[in-house]
Amino acid sequence: MTLSNILIFAGIYLVAASTPGPGLALAVARTLGRGLPGLPWLVAGFVLGDLVLMTLAVFGLAFVTQTFATGFRVLRYAGALYLAWMAWKIWRTPVQPLNLSAETVRQRRSSAFLSSLSLTLGNPKPIVFFLSIMPLVVDMQHVDTLIFAELGATIIVVLSSVMTAAAILADRARRVFRSEQALRRINKGTATTIAGVAAAVAAG
After folding, report:
1. For residues 122 and 101, what is the distance between their CA atoms, to the nearest angstrom?
2. pLDDT exceeds cutoff 70 at 170
3. Digit-coded pLDDT (tens) for 71-127
4. In whole angstroms, how large is the CA radius of gyration of the chain?
5. Nearest to residue 134, comparing CAs of 153, 151, 156?
6. DSSP 3-state assignment of 56?
7. Cα–Cα distance between 156 and 146 in angstroms, integer?
8. H or E segment and range at residue 133
């Protein structure tokens, strides 16, 4: 791919990644509820999910989605159930100072990674992008190892930047509200948002 082609793909992908949807909602809601611990793992789940979908697109996503449609539906419902469980946990979490013990951080890492990965793989939005939009700017029949690596690197840089920026902005907003009542409202709002994301993913 030429530099101009890469920039065009990066621009279109940036717009798609920045458009409000379940992914951004999860990143913002989770940060409002739990802060920045686990953010790299949350971002890693989003990135890995898009890399998997991009790989499927290169090797024939249309065939895969048609052949394994049931598998994609099961994955979507599983992700929705996981998000609903996370919303329930946040709703019931008592308001208290942020606990940064090693065990808590470890749990947040795994929870963040699994939530963003399952959401991405079961979310129609990125599937539609890689199936319908990416082929408009990328010659899918001539994707070699170099082009594949260029596309992957673009996805990593763009998506990591978008999700990290959204989470940091959410964390700054969260730190403005320090009273117990405000934090309790943030937790309830966060749980409601994530539950809404779960419902949207399940409805697909």
Report:
1. 32
2. yes
3. 556 656 666 676 676 667 666 666 544 444 444 445 567 788 888 888 888 777 787
4. 18
5. 151
6. helix
7. 15
8. none
Cα 68 to the chain's mean position, in Å? 22
Sign of the dihedral defined by the CA atoms of residues 105, 107, 108, 112, in that order? positive
Q: Cite the DSSP H helix spans in the chain.
A: 3-18, 22-34, 39-58, 61-67, 69-92, 102-121, 124-128, 134-137, 145-176, 180-203
The span from the CA of 199 to the CA of 93, in Å, is 21
Residue 34 has pLDDT above 80, yes or no: no
Contacts of 7 (CB under 8 A, 6+ apart): none
Question: HSE (CB half, 13 Å, CA atoms) of 102?
Answer: 0
Cα separation of 25 and 196, whole Å?
9
126-153 confidence digits (pLDDT tens):
877 787 778 777 877 778 889 899 999 9
**CA–CA distance, 158 with 18 (Å, rounded to integer):** 10
Quote the pLDDT of residue 18.
83
Closest CA to 28 of 12, 13, 49, 43: 43
How much is the pTM?
0.67
Which pLDDT does position 104 carry in this prediction? 44
Separation between Cα atoms, residue 120 and residue 109, nearest integer Å: 17
Residue located via tokens 């539950």: 195
